[in-house]
Amino acid sequence: MLRKGKSHIEGAGLFTDAPIPARKKIGELTGEKISLREARRRAKRLKRIAIVEMDKGAIDATVRGAGPLRYVNHSCDPNSYIRIAYNRVEFYALRAIKAGEELTCDYGATQHEGKLPCRCNSPKCRQFL
User: Fold this and answer.
1) pLDDT, tens digit, for every residue of 17-61?
2) CATH number, domain 2-105
3) Do residues 51 and 82 lie in contact, with contact meaning Cβ atoms separated by under 8 Å?
4) What are the domain boundaries of the chain?
């Protein structure tokens, strides 16, 4: 149902082969569970960050074997959102998503601290992450 492909936003993206209804759970981000301190240390040395911080630690999806949701790119006008609950990072459809559409979410606050140019090309683009 989900496949990695070339993104029009940045590098690789995640695409759906089938429609996804609004509010449906897409899946859970997997990767290495690490401390917040370690997450921030790793983020400083990575060009592409796939780390999500939670109250009690973080998930590093840049590690080998992490699931496909690591390829969800940022958009200022996303079609999905992240829900962090019970020390888990889950993705849900914000609206109905068409087959073949790239999955995107609004990363919100990032380790880039507002210095990384946004490439989403949305009319709602905030210009930086």
Assistant:
1) 999 999 999 999 999 999 999 998 998 887 777 889 898 899 999
2) 2.170.270.10
3) no
4) 2-105
